[in-house]
Amino acid sequence: MTYSDASRPDLDWSQIRETIKLLTVSAAQMDGSMKDGDASVNALATAFTGMVENLAAIREQLTGLAESENRENALAQCDAARRKIDDAIVEFQFYDRLQQCLQHVSANLKDLSAMIETPHRLYNPAEWCALQDAIRGRYTMEAEKVMFDAIHQGKSIEEALALFEAANQTGGDPDIQLF
To answer: So which domain of life are we looking at (predicted)?
Structure first.
């Protein structure tokens, strides 16, 4: 059965179906972007692994040479390059955190779509409570839970984001979380 849509409404038109379409598009966009991001990050990780191996081989060659100012400078440059690579790897860990957050948002949108398209769930407050509990339960960072709770207490997005930032700054979460 085909349903009417906003561009061709009839008596069967439903704002709920329109909402579901928009939620589904949003989830699909996030999923697609995450896959693209993963491919790029995997390519970068492979490149960094190769650079670390190359630096180790260069370092080994240099240590086999007679001591000289040039050798020491080259070893120092190897060490500096290795530190920069280590810093880049830390940034990848932040990407992992972002990736997890986007996965939560995508799953939340999909669950919300399923809720909205099922009439017996849509109009059942217990189902809404269960969905909210499931969404909050996905969060691994305390700052996310603080933001979720703030929104559900009626705070504005700006207030919730401020609380999120404050929770991140007060040590509620470590700077880096590995998943």
So the answer is: Bacteria
Looking at the domain assignment, is residue 160 inside a domain?
Answer: no
CA angle, corner 132, sides to 130 and 134, nearest 5?
A: 70
pLDDT, position 171: 56
Report percent pLDDT > 70 for the chain.
91
The mean per-residue pLDDT over the stretch 23-51 comes to 88
Domain assignment present for 97: yes
Tell me if 1 is assigned to some domain: no
- In the structure, what pLDDT confidence band is assigned to residue 135 with cuts at 50, 70 and 90? very high
- Residues written for the chain: 179
Angle (CA) 89-93-99 rounded to 5° is: 135
Q: How many Å apart are CA 94 and CA 176, to the nearest integer?
A: 7
Chain-centre distance of CA 34, in angstroms? 8
pTM, two decimals, is 0.68
Provide the domain limits for residue 19. 15-103
Question: How far apart are alpha carbons 27 and 102 in whole angstroms?
Answer: 9
